[in-house]
Amino acid sequence: MPYLGAPQIINITMPSFREYCLSLDESLDTPYPWTTTHAGSDNYRAMFEVPGTSKAGHPQTPLHYQVDFAKHTEQRIRWSGKDVHPWEFTFEASGSGEANKRAANNPFGITQTGHAFTVFATVIAVMKAFIAHQHPSVIYFSAHESSRARLYDRFITQVGASVPGYVGHKLTAAMRRPGNVAPWIGPGNYVIAKQAIPLKTILTAIDSDDY
After folding, report:
1. CA Rg, the chain, in Å?
2. How confident is the model at residue 109 (pLDDT cuts 50, 70, 90)?
3. What is the rounded distance in angstroms from the CA atom of residue 124 to the CA atom of residue 187?
4. What residue spans define the domains of the chain?
5. How far apart are alpha carbons 130 and 136 in whole angstroms?
6. How far is CA 156 from the centre of its chain?
7. Interhelix angle for 17-27 vs 146-156, to 10°?
8. Which of 6, 24, 45, 197 keeps 20 to 30 A from 122, CA to CA?
9. 175 CB contacts (<8 Å, ≥6 apart)?
């Protein structure tokens, strides 16, 4: 039997959290081109596309994304003597074509694009434009996918620098209280709000059509 020599040890180096954060920080400066398709008093929408990657010499259909902000008038937060209605932020894959059909199996995913950081950078650019247009008091959003949660966890600490006048909060189970509380008060959810609004006030958000 031939001598194979000593077994070789192959080291696979995974990116450190610091390297991951640096990649995210750098990507926030390089969004894809995007277009506002609607800007109303209760809703705001923008669209962008991720270039398709080539496969066997054939270019693939671009992947389309839709970014939405919707005001929830059935919810309220009582602040400074008035009712504040929060906005919900979502983004997902949309459109037709083979790439978009594959994404439809996980429309909230971004890792399958191969461009996760730049997709996220584009979404943040849209968010900045929405805030400049609408000046919302409170925006809430959820992490539908583990890759999003990691990005949101990082971004929420950078809100003050990225969006002056606003602050980010990551919500937890301990913050949920009994009663007619808004459904997004709790784990897996995030909030961006004007700095002047205390977190304890945001946590009093209720969900009811009967005030």
Report:
1. 21
2. low
3. 22
4. 17-48+62-207
5. 9
6. 10
7. 80
8. 197
9. 185, 186, 203
Position 204: which residue type?
A: T
Q: Is the pLDDT of residue 4 over 50?
A: no
Q: Alpha carbon of 102 to those of 24, 31, 33, 147, 181: distances in Å?
A: 25, 23, 23, 18, 36
Q: Tell me the pairing of strands 166-170 and 189-194.
A: antiparallel
This prediction's pTM? 0.78
Q: What is the structure's pLDDT at 177?
A: 82
Burial class, 110, CB count within 10 angstroms (exposed 0-12 / middle 13-18 / buried 19+): buried
Are the C-beta atoms of 181 and 196 separated by less than 8 Å? no
23: Cα within 13 Å, side-chain hemisphere: 14
Q: How confident is the model over 52-101, as pLDDT tens digits?
A: 655 555 556 778 899 999 999 999 999 999 999 999 999 888 765 544 54
Supply 145's token pair: 């996918």
Q: What is the mean pLDDT of the chain?
A: 79
Mean pLDDT confidence for 110-128? 78
State how far the Cα of 170 lies from the Cα of 185, in Å rounded to an integer. Answer: 10
Question: How far is it, in rounded angstroms, from Cα 167 to Cα 199?
Answer: 10
